[in-house]
Design brief:
By secondary structure, the chain is of the alpha/beta class. It has five helices and eight strands, in the order H-E-E-E-E-H-E-H-E-H-E-H-E. It has one domain. The chain is 30% helix and 22% strand.
Length: 200
Protein backbone atom coordinates (compact mmCIF):
# COMPACT_ATOMS: atom_id res chain seq x y z
CA UNK A 1 0.00 0.00 0.00
CA UNK A 2 1.30 3.44 -0.92
CA UNK A 3 2.28 5.46 2.18
CA UNK A 4 0.68 8.86 1.72
CA UNK A 5 0.51 11.51 4.43
CA UNK A 6 -3.15 10.60 4.93
CA UNK A 7 -2.28 6.93 5.33
CA UNK A 8 0.48 7.77 7.83
CA UNK A 9 -2.05 9.66 9.96
CA UNK A 10 -4.39 6.66 9.71
CA UNK A 11 -1.60 4.34 10.91
CA UNK A 12 -0.93 6.56 13.92
CA UNK A 13 -4.63 6.46 14.79
CA UNK A 14 -4.61 2.65 14.47
CA UNK A 15 -1.71 2.41 16.91
CA UNK A 16 -3.54 4.64 19.40
CA UNK A 17 -6.62 2.46 18.92
CA UNK A 18 -4.58 -0.69 19.64
CA UNK A 19 -3.08 0.79 22.80
CA UNK A 20 -6.49 1.85 24.12
CA UNK A 21 -8.51 -1.19 23.01
CA UNK A 22 -10.28 -3.10 25.78
CA UNK A 23 -10.89 -6.85 25.90
CA UNK A 24 -12.94 -9.38 27.87
CA UNK A 25 -10.54 -9.23 30.83
CA UNK A 26 -11.23 -5.50 31.16
CA UNK A 27 -14.98 -5.99 31.65
CA UNK A 28 -16.05 -5.14 35.22
CA UNK A 29 -17.99 -7.84 37.09
CA UNK A 30 -21.28 -6.02 36.59
CA UNK A 31 -20.95 -5.48 32.81
CA UNK A 32 -22.12 -8.14 30.36
CA UNK A 33 -22.45 -8.53 26.59
CA UNK A 34 -25.98 -8.85 25.23
CA UNK A 35 -26.54 -10.23 21.73
CA UNK A 36 -30.07 -9.95 20.40
CA UNK A 37 -31.73 -10.37 17.04
CA UNK A 38 -34.53 -8.04 16.01
CA UNK A 39 -34.21 -6.06 12.79
CA UNK A 40 -30.58 -7.04 12.51
CA UNK A 41 -28.26 -8.38 15.18
CA UNK A 42 -27.32 -6.12 18.10
CA UNK A 43 -24.13 -6.56 20.13
CA UNK A 44 -24.32 -4.33 23.22
CA UNK A 45 -23.03 -3.82 26.74
CA UNK A 46 -25.63 -4.61 29.39
CA UNK A 47 -26.15 -5.39 33.06
CA UNK A 48 -26.63 -8.96 34.32
CA UNK A 49 -30.36 -8.79 33.53
CA UNK A 50 -29.77 -7.81 29.90
CA UNK A 51 -30.67 -4.14 30.33
CA UNK A 52 -28.59 -2.25 27.77
CA UNK A 53 -26.19 0.31 29.26
CA UNK A 54 -26.62 3.85 27.97
CA UNK A 55 -24.23 6.78 27.71
CA UNK A 56 -24.59 7.60 31.42
CA UNK A 57 -22.50 4.47 32.06
CA UNK A 58 -18.71 4.59 31.58
CA UNK A 59 -19.02 1.47 29.39
CA UNK A 60 -21.64 1.57 26.66
CA UNK A 61 -21.91 0.75 23.00
CA UNK A 62 -23.71 -0.93 20.13
CA UNK A 63 -22.61 -2.67 16.97
CA UNK A 64 -25.61 -3.59 14.83
CA UNK A 65 -25.36 -5.59 11.62
CA UNK A 66 -27.71 -7.11 9.08
CA UNK A 67 -27.37 -10.77 8.19
CA UNK A 68 -28.65 -9.96 4.70
CA UNK A 69 -28.14 -6.83 2.65
CA UNK A 70 -31.50 -6.28 0.93
CA UNK A 71 -31.49 -2.46 1.03
CA UNK A 72 -28.73 -2.28 -1.57
CA UNK A 73 -30.03 -5.19 -3.66
CA UNK A 74 -26.70 -7.05 -3.49
CA UNK A 75 -25.79 -10.16 -1.54
CA UNK A 76 -22.12 -9.29 -0.84
CA UNK A 77 -21.19 -12.97 -1.16
CA UNK A 78 -23.32 -13.83 1.87
CA UNK A 79 -21.51 -11.49 4.28
CA UNK A 80 -23.37 -9.69 7.04
CA UNK A 81 -23.14 -5.89 6.75
CA UNK A 82 -22.55 -3.40 9.58
CA UNK A 83 -25.45 -0.96 9.92
CA UNK A 84 -24.62 1.01 13.09
CA UNK A 85 -21.68 1.48 15.43
CA UNK A 86 -21.44 3.72 18.48
CA UNK A 87 -19.34 2.98 21.56
CA UNK A 88 -17.47 4.50 24.46
CA UNK A 89 -13.79 5.12 23.73
CA UNK A 90 -11.74 1.93 23.68
CA UNK A 91 -14.69 -0.48 23.75
CA UNK A 92 -15.53 -0.67 20.04
CA UNK A 93 -12.94 -3.33 19.08
CA UNK A 94 -14.36 -5.80 21.63
CA UNK A 95 -17.86 -5.44 20.19
CA UNK A 96 -16.47 -5.73 16.65
CA UNK A 97 -14.63 -8.96 17.54
CA UNK A 98 -17.88 -10.43 18.85
CA UNK A 99 -19.82 -9.19 15.80
CA UNK A 100 -17.32 -10.80 13.41
CA UNK A 101 -17.47 -14.09 15.31
CA UNK A 102 -21.29 -14.10 15.26
CA UNK A 103 -21.36 -13.15 11.56
CA UNK A 104 -18.97 -16.02 10.86
CA UNK A 105 -21.42 -18.41 12.55
CA UNK A 106 -24.64 -16.93 11.09
CA UNK A 107 -23.45 -15.65 7.68
CA UNK A 108 -20.33 -15.61 5.51
CA UNK A 109 -18.43 -13.21 7.78
CA UNK A 110 -18.83 -9.47 8.34
CA UNK A 111 -18.14 -6.46 6.17
CA UNK A 112 -18.37 -2.73 6.80
CA UNK A 113 -21.23 -0.50 5.73
CA UNK A 114 -20.96 -0.26 1.98
CA UNK A 115 -21.15 3.53 1.71
CA UNK A 116 -20.31 5.31 4.96
CA UNK A 117 -17.89 4.38 7.77
CA UNK A 118 -17.06 6.85 10.53
CA UNK A 119 -13.33 7.68 10.97
CA UNK A 120 -13.07 5.89 14.34
CA UNK A 121 -14.62 2.76 12.82
CA UNK A 122 -12.36 3.04 9.76
CA UNK A 123 -9.36 2.68 12.07
CA UNK A 124 -10.80 -0.60 13.39
CA UNK A 125 -11.15 -2.03 9.86
CA UNK A 126 -7.62 -0.97 8.90
CA UNK A 127 -6.32 -2.61 12.07
CA UNK A 128 -8.13 -5.89 11.32
CA UNK A 129 -6.84 -5.90 7.75
CA UNK A 130 -3.21 -5.10 8.54
CA UNK A 131 -2.50 -6.38 12.06
CA UNK A 132 -4.84 -9.16 13.20
CA UNK A 133 -3.64 -12.62 12.18
CA UNK A 134 -6.61 -14.19 14.02
CA UNK A 135 -9.06 -12.32 11.76
CA UNK A 136 -9.13 -13.56 8.17
CA UNK A 137 -9.94 -11.20 5.29
CA UNK A 138 -11.59 -12.41 2.08
CA UNK A 139 -11.91 -10.30 -1.07
CA UNK A 140 -15.47 -9.32 -1.98
CA UNK A 141 -16.53 -8.89 -5.60
CA UNK A 142 -17.60 -5.52 -6.93
CA UNK A 143 -20.97 -4.64 -8.43
CA UNK A 144 -20.13 -6.10 -11.85
CA UNK A 145 -23.43 -6.76 -13.64
CA UNK A 146 -22.03 -10.01 -15.01
CA UNK A 147 -22.19 -11.45 -11.47
CA UNK A 148 -25.40 -12.81 -9.94
CA UNK A 149 -26.99 -10.37 -7.44
CA UNK A 150 -26.14 -12.56 -4.44
CA UNK A 151 -22.44 -12.24 -5.26
CA UNK A 152 -22.34 -8.53 -6.14
CA UNK A 153 -21.27 -6.05 -3.49
CA UNK A 154 -21.39 -2.27 -3.58
CA UNK A 155 -17.88 -0.87 -3.18
CA UNK A 156 -18.64 2.83 -2.65
CA UNK A 157 -16.72 3.08 0.63
CA UNK A 158 -13.81 1.08 -0.85
CA UNK A 159 -13.54 3.42 -3.82
CA UNK A 160 -13.64 6.50 -1.60
CA UNK A 161 -10.90 5.08 0.64
CA UNK A 162 -8.84 4.03 -2.38
CA UNK A 163 -8.90 7.55 -3.76
CA UNK A 164 -7.87 8.89 -0.35
CA UNK A 165 -5.04 6.34 0.04
CA UNK A 166 -3.93 6.39 -3.60
CA UNK A 167 -4.50 2.66 -4.14
CA UNK A 168 -6.90 0.32 -5.95
CA UNK A 169 -10.27 -0.23 -4.26
CA UNK A 170 -9.46 -3.92 -3.77
CA UNK A 171 -6.49 -2.92 -1.58
CA UNK A 172 -8.65 -1.26 1.06
CA UNK A 173 -9.99 -3.04 4.16
CA UNK A 174 -13.56 -2.09 3.21
CA UNK A 175 -13.46 -4.29 0.10
CA UNK A 176 -13.28 -7.44 2.24
CA UNK A 177 -15.42 -9.64 4.40
CA UNK A 178 -13.90 -10.86 7.67
CA UNK A 179 -14.17 -14.14 9.55
CA UNK A 180 -12.92 -15.19 12.97
CA UNK A 181 -13.04 -18.26 15.19
CA UNK A 182 -15.34 -17.80 18.23
CA UNK A 183 -12.55 -17.33 20.76
CA UNK A 184 -14.03 -14.16 22.28
CA UNK A 185 -17.50 -15.71 22.57
CA UNK A 186 -15.98 -18.68 24.42
CA UNK A 187 -13.96 -16.38 26.66
CA UNK A 188 -17.11 -14.45 27.63
CA UNK A 189 -18.73 -17.59 29.04
CA UNK A 190 -21.48 -16.59 31.51
CA UNK A 191 -20.99 -12.90 30.68
CA UNK A 192 -22.71 -13.51 27.32
CA UNK A 193 -26.49 -12.96 27.24
CA UNK A 194 -28.37 -14.21 24.16
CA UNK A 195 -31.88 -13.05 23.24
CA UNK A 196 -33.78 -14.37 20.22
CA UNK A 197 -30.59 -15.69 18.60
CA UNK A 198 -29.06 -19.16 18.46
CA UNK A 199 -25.29 -19.42 17.97
CA UNK A 200 -25.03 -23.21 17.78
Amino acid sequence: MKLTEARLKQMIMEELLHEGAKNVDDLPNDVFIKVSQKVGVFVQFSDKDGNVLDKTSPIWGTVRFNLKNPEYGYGCDGAAVVAETETADGWGPLLYDIAIEIATIKANGLTSDRYNVQPSAQNVWYYYYENRSDVKSHQLPGDDRSLPPEKRCSQGISKDAAEYDGVEWSETPFSKRYTKNPTTLKQLGSKLILKNINLT
